[in-house]
Automatic annotation (TrEMBL):
GO terms for cellular component: mitochondrion. GO terms for biological process: arginyl-tRNA aminoacylation; mitochondrial translation. InterPro entries: aa-tRNA-synth_I_CS, Arg-tRNA-ligase, ArgRS_core, DALR_anticod-bd, Rossmann-like_a/b/a_fold, tRNAsynth_Ia_anticodon-bd. The keyword Ribosomal protein does not apply. It comes from the Eukaryota. NCBIfam families: argS. It comes from Biomphalaria pfeifferi. This is Probable arginine--tRNA ligase, mitochondrial. Keywords: Aminoacyl-tRNA synthetase, ATP-binding, Ligase, Nucleotide-binding, Protein biosynthesis. It catalyses: tRNA(Arg) + L-arginine + ATP = L-arginyl-tRNA(Arg) + AMP + diphosphate. Residues 362-478 form the DALR anticodon binding domain. It is an enzyme of class 6 (ligase). Catalyzes the attachment of arginine to tRNA(Arg) in a two-step reaction: arginine is first activated by ATP to form Arg-AMP and then transferred to the acceptor end of tRNA(Arg).
Length: 478
């Protein structure tokens, strides 16, 4: 994609891996995965705009003990037809029911005391050994979930270059253990649990294999990281994951350093691109929050706003599509407008405020500029009278702000902080709106009209560049 920015020269081109989204297919797609998806997509866009080679990796959580429980839940409570109609909802309902059964059985004791939990673990053990029946159930859960996830990625405007799965690495545990043993890094406790001593204060040992020899998430992460390095030889690797997983990544990076992976010597804050939590996100029905419900509600609320304004230029057929694009922009910009490590409170009112810093605000600004340019009756020209711009404060505010775009972009890339571009975008739209009111184009003398139109054209180009960088589709008509 052309983001309208060339950035650094090819001589400094790097090969970069950005792992983001990474949902667990046997669990609901929650807000943390939404944030990872949005932030990771934008960081990937930044690198591509600067001329780097980027691998966008979605690391699917399709393995682990939860599959034993969910498989058992489907056998006890599942409805095959409901699973086909709405896989994510039915899987979630089954997930809740089976965990309620475990909780009821174990009471105040450990969940491992529950017969249901033990039965689920037995199913997962069969899965790891390749039992054909349980493998068939697992494939159905995985495939139906991925189909639904892909629909949401399309709505969000997100794409990946590689879809990798935990299941691809579950049988490579011994290979990892052998590599660790060769470097005298693998130790065992009295129960037969294998671990690596990180020697990092407050972190301690990193368990890499259970006493029964089954794999762990960390082991599969190590296997995947080593495999990617052998295939792609990355210069930089970023895992876009919420900050609650910091201990996991400290352990992962510590082990990779001991195994001699070059990029693992980077700062942990560079490798683990962490972010804060979202508070207050709910739909009109409340209860459990699915991403699909949030996207649908955003579209509905935008359509309500468009109908109330009674000024939409979009046809009835295009209105729902337009509202969906604006709704997605509103969700993404509210998520990105603050420092990524800060928690924030979700607000429908702020998100859809036409006069405040929001997705609605910037999309209306872009569409307004497009409308003015197509109806002003002035022929665009690069040969303009600069003095018409220099002596106008409103136009000069735009010009000076446009001049800062490369600086803002470079800073955002270096810090992996999208909010700098978002705040730049909001300020640009405010400058555009102020000039739009005080600097009309239509009906003005030719020199003045062409100078103003040229300024607005440049502003629209940079506005569009920002939207594309942030993973948003610029709307010409609303």
């Amino acid at each position: 994609m052309n983001y309208g920015y060339m950035g650094r020269t090819n001589s400094s081109q790097k090969h970069v891996c950005v792992e983001f989204s990474s949902p667990n297919v046997a669990k609901p797609f929650h807000v943390g995965h939404l944030r990872s998806t949005i932030i990771g997509n934008v960081i990937s866009n930044f690198y591509e705009a600067a001329g780097h080679r980027v691998k966008r990796i979605n690391w699917i959580g399709d393995w682990g003990t939860q599959f034993g429980l969910v498989s058992l839940g489907l056998m006890r409570f599942g409805d095959v037809e409901l699973l086909k109609q709405d896989p994510l909802l039915e899987l979630f309902n089954v997930y809740v029911q089976i965990n309620q059964a475990v909780a009821a059985e174990c009471g105040t004791n450990s969940e491992s005391m529950s017969p249901t939990y033990q039965e689920g673990m037995a199913l997962f053990s069969k899965l790891e050994k390749g039992d054909e029946h349980i493998m068939t159930v697992w494939r159905m859960i995985r495939d139906l979930s991925l189909q639904e996830l892909n629909k949401m990625y399309q709505r969000l405007g997100v794409h990946f270059t590689h879809i990798l799965s935990e299941s691809d690495y579950h049988n490579r545990t011994q290979e990892i253990l052998d590599r660790l043993s060769q470097k005298d890094l693998l130790l065992y406790d009295s129960n037969g649990v294998g671990y690596v001593e990180t020697e990092i204060k407050g972190v301690g040992r990193a368990t890499v294999v259970k006493s029964d020899g089954s794999s762990l998430y960390l082991t599969r992460d190590i296997a995947s990281a080593l495999d990617r390095q052998e295939k792609f030889s990355f210069d930089h690797v970023h895992y876009v994951v919420e900050q609650g997983q910091k201990a996991h990544f400290i352990k992962l990076v510590s082990i990779l350093q001991k195994l001699g992976v070059p990029w693992a010597n980077s700062s942990i804050d560079d490798i683990h691109v962490r972010f804060g939590r979202v508070n207050g996100m709910s739909t009109r029905e409340g209860n459990v929050i699915f991403l699909r419900d949030v996207l649908d509600e955003a579209r509905t609320r935008v359509m309500d706003t468009m109908l109330k304004k009674n000024s939409t230029r979009a046809s009835q057929n295009d209105m729902e599509k337009t509202a969906d694009i604006i709704g997605v922009a509103s969700i993404i910009l509210q998520d990105l407008k603050a420092n990524r490590v800060a928690d924030y409170t979700f607000s429908w009112e702020r998100m859809l405020n036409l006069k405040a810093d929001s997705g609605v605000f910037v999309q209306y600004c872009h569409a307004r500029l497009n409308s003015m340019m197509t109806t002003c009756g002035v022929q665009p020209s690069d040969d303009i009278d600069i003095s018409c711009i220099v002596k106008d404060d409103a136009l000069m505010n735009i010009v000076l702000h446009l001049a800062r775009y490369p600086e803002i972009f470079e800073y955002s890339l270096d810090s992996l902080e999208p909010h700098h571009v978002v705040q730049y975008l909001f300020k640009l739209c405010h400058f555009i709106n102020a000039a739009y009111t005080s600097c009309p184009v239509k009906g003005e003398p030719q020199d003045l009209a062409q100078a103003r139109l040229f300024t607005f054209e440049c502003a629209k180009q940079v506005l569009q560049n920002c939207l594309l960088l942030l993973g948003l589709k610029p709307l010409d008509v609303i």
